[in-house]
Amino acid sequence: MEPRVTVVGGGLAGCEAAFQLARHGVGVDLIEMRPLRGTEAHETDQLAELVCSNSLRSDDVSTAIGLLHEEMRRLGSLVLQVADAHRVPAGGSLAVDRRGFSQAVTAAILALPEVKLHRRELDALPSELAVVATGPLTAPGLSQALAGLCGAEHLFFYDAIAPIVTAESIDQDRVFRASRWGKGGDDYINCPLDREGYEGLVADILAAEKVPTRDFEQAVHFEGCLPVEEMARRGRDTLAYGPLKPVGLVDPRTGRRPWAVVQLRQDDADARLFNLVGFQTRMTYPEQRRILRTIPGLERAEFVRLGSLHRNTFIRSPQVLDPTLRLRARPHLLLAGQIIGVEGYVESASMGWLAGINAARLALGEAPLIPPETTSIGSLVRYITTPERRDFQPMNANYGLFPPLDDPRVRGRDRKQAHAARALAAIDEFGRRARAHLAPAA
Fold it and tell me: Is 97 in a helix, a strand, or coil?
């Protein structure tokens, strides 16, 4: 009888887990509640829908996230395969056509004979071997079941979405194309601000009417996705040193560096849509339209999506997960994705990869694996499963999570390159071990 595993959630982590299970001949029942039950952020019924940015961030292996990209490519990730096929210009970053990406992942999953997709909502956790990858927008019933099983209070934090405008509504006479320091050529559209314009924009953002904070258990902004008004509140120049920093940019019409820039990044393959980089917000819709149209080049902006704020949920993984991503209290349940406290698309997909591989191994009578902590994926696993960690918050891939190099004298870019070289050697060996006892499906 064919072994089968249930995967709950059709986001990046769930799709990656289902794909890895199917690759190794294990049957999958993939359960996705949309469109029967929607969320505050999703707009379609497609699998692996990107609800925030369309950027998977830096693709440079000298960065921890770029290294994670390469590790996932070498491990046979579906998410990275599709992302590479649907990338759009974004300088040194890996950004994708949002709609094309989710459609391609959906098609790839539906084409797998081992996978059966079920559109329904679960209120209880599966009693059989399963991967739970319901993401940060887990429905209340399943969220309560997780809270009861984990024996730990759920945490809540806010996540924010940036607005998207049509390309044809951007006044090209008032903007210029360039990437910071020339990395990526002219991939970004830059709306230049002088000092007066910048300070006026900050004042408008601070004074704008905001959507009232809802009564969640905790209101914690994740530092990697702060609303623009929260950044502005921290100081007059915070935005100028953050998403609006003008370093490495020269306005060709003046020959000078602007005081600040609002950057727009291509959001689709046809370059018809652009999102405002770093402008996640909870300003009301009328205020967003009014204030954002004061930015040079956006005076007649047509918004196809405005910014919003939604609840993200994660559990205290260090107290409840082991390093193979199994719940200590229920070893037949593996958890993956943002709900376990990794932040970012590829970070979530990487946990889906590991949960899928380990679920396949368990289904086939093999012992689950733990990735080397010297790798980007392994350093994340170590961060989220170290029981001694008490002050737990969601985390992106970063070199601060890696164990030290053998030579402490290595510094700067050389240090990052040394981390990357060590990690890729380790991931290649780990990949061979992961495949050794799992014959790929025909």
Answer: coil
